[in-house]
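User: Could you walk me through two proteins back to back? I'd like the raw sequence and the structure tokens for each, with a short line separating them so I can tell where one ends and the next begins.

Assistant: Of course. Protein one, sequence then structure:
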Amino acid sequence: MNFDIDTWMKSYLNKLNSLFGSRLLFVGLQGSYGRGEATESSDIDLVVILDKAVAQDLKAYGAMLDTLPNREKVCGFISGQQELINWERSDLFQFYHDATPVLGSIDFLLPLIGKEDIRRAIRIGACNIYHMCGHNMVHEKDAGILKALYKTAAFTVQAVYYDQTETYIKQKVELIPVLQPQEREILQTGMMLKEQPDKALSDFERLSELLFNWAAGLIIEYKID
């Protein structure tokens, strides 16, 4: 049976409103559904922001989700407003831009995110990729880890482009033509691995070296002044 996200979201929002009422400030979709790139295997990556979130709210939210179809596909983030406002701001950059609004707005986050927060997001992303890619090349030699790192690298590519242009492009097919050659190759490789996952094993050394060297260059370029 085909899954229809619009039908599912309508039922979800009705139950969510019944549960939280006026306390519900924002609902958004992240991930592939938020970008319009979803496939049959995609998760439903939801963002829920309440006026205030306590542990009992999380329990009630989880119980509500258990009543919905396709529960196994649901993941995401639930938070109180003040916790989000005081969140690590390099994370807020990606969080804000990757959340497609369904109900309400999180525009209150925009004034909090400065140029250095974006540079920090790039630096942290590059450091994590460099660390894990290097570890994987030496120790694990795992094609699945390499594929996951390329998926993660897409977020860093988006941040690099935003730092250069102050434009955030969600969809990869729209982003590729406007990227610099290095970032374009990283993003295209990640997309290729999604379609041809066996390439992560058959071309493991070359693709690992490509990712590792790219991350190393970003770490140096985005060094702390």
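----
Protein two, same layout:
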Amino acid sequence: MKHSGKTIDWGRTRYREALERQKVRVTQRKADMVPDTLIFTEHHPVYTVGVRPGAQSHLVWNPEQLNAAGIEVVETNRGGDITYHGPGQIVGYPILSWQEQRDLHLYLRKLEDVLIQSVAQFGLKADRREGKTGIWIENRKLAAIGVAVKSWITYHGFALNVCPDLSHFTGIVPCGITDGTVTSLKQELGEQCPELETVKSTLSLEFWKVFGEHAAYGNA
């Protein structure tokens, strides 16, 4: 059975909960029980540590500082280094069958295309940086990408900074960046920064332009 794609919104979630929900969805997608899906969420404040060697060493804050800021630390199985997720940041988890393409590099480039095209709708020119993932405005990282696949079903995904507390990024060396900074739509656009729901709608539209038909949007 061939399923068309859809977008759903989980609202605010804790990272561990969302990871378990993703795993369930991956199993369902592998069994062809659900369609290709783009999931949106905002996480409660968390530093997630990817599988890149040395990622844990890029945690800067000590336990007292973490407790004061209300940020937990979770090791995860996505690619990449350490990063921050929190309110004001849109996290996108595509659960897609990538059986036909089986090219992870192509998948990463397509995710970057989605993000570049989405922020262009708000007047920002973002691009790639040589040897790095995510999208950038000069040396300022606007969105991070860290993905995983299981039986060629994708999970994890991207995080676009709309209006998060950027001070929380000072508790880590974000994504191992030593030659740049982190930015957000709000920092770049000021009062012209769009609402989160507007950004989600734009991301969904651009995502399905790149990855297939957009069939539905909801909270399932």
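Residues 108 and 145 are 8 Å apart (CA to CA).

Let me know if you want the two compared in more detail.
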